[in-house]
Write a structure and sequence with these properties.
Strand content: 15-25%
Structural class: alpha/beta
Distance between the termini: 25 Å
Number of strands: 10
Number of domains: 1
Largest sheet: 6 strands, parallel
Helix content: 40-55%
Shape: globular
Mean pLDDT: 91
């Protein structure tokens, strides 16, 4: 009973946010779980497309990286880079990809998309460059407004820093201290207000289960 009630609740929230995102010029798809999210991703990206990704725990959880590596795609795989320079070169090539896939850090009920980045490559690619952007985002990242989005990001940033094995103050105390560490991942906070200029360029897959952080 608890599972069904949560599914109903998540679907209600996703429907509301979907309407808001559609009104702002984005395309939205609702997936009931990770498997359906992966199938939606496969349907959206034609074979032989050049695909790039931003860092995302969600993509790993739904099996997207395995799909791109084993499927018939030209995958710009940033994870196989052996040096920092090689990784940066792959990230720059991502601007010319047919599809750029990542997740959002938060989405507001009014359809504003919040992104936080350490190097800026992910937010830059989402904003400008690739022909199509797909954001795979779960319902646990939906918040009331931009202020709540920022608070959510401050809450999860220490966990992301810990996951990435960074030596930042937040990994020592478990909470954000607005540090000045060179390893800080909270450098670029971006809000996408709308997609009116390029309707449908940003596609959002809302997943009705909790993923990522």
């Amino acid at each position: 009973m608890r599972s069904k009630l949560y599914q109903w609740k998540y679907h209600s929230i996703a429907n509301k946010v979907s309407d808001s995102l559609n009104k702002k010029g984005h395309e939205v798809y609702i997936a009931k779980d990770s498997r359906e999210a992966l199938e939606t991703l496969k349907n959206l990206i034609p074979e032989n497309s050049t695909v790039a990704t931003g860092g995302s725990l969600t993509l790993t959880q739904i099996g997207a990286l395995e799909l791109f590596r084993n499927g018939n795609y030209n995958f710009l795989d940033r994870y196989i880079a052996k040096t920092r320079a090689e990784k940066e070169e792959i990230e720059k090539k991502a601007f010319y990809a047919d599809y750029y896939v990542c997740s959002a850090n938060a989405i507001t009920e009014d359809g504003e998309i919040a992104l936080l980045d350490g190097n800026g490559n992910r937010v830059a690619a989402v904003i400008y460059g690739p022909k199509n952007v797909i954001l795979v985002t779960s319902v646990n990242k939906i918040v009331k407004n931009v202020n709540e989005a920022r608070e959510r990001i401050r809450y999860i940033s220490p966990m992301n820093s810990r996951r990435l094995n960074l030596n930042t103050p937040c990994t020592q105390v478990g909470s954000c201290v607005d540090c000045s560490s060179y390893q800080r991942i909270c450098n670029y906070f971006v809000i996408i207000e709308s997609g009116y200029r390029f309707p449908g360029r940003i596609k959002v897959i809302l997943v009705l289960e909790e993923l990522g952080l």
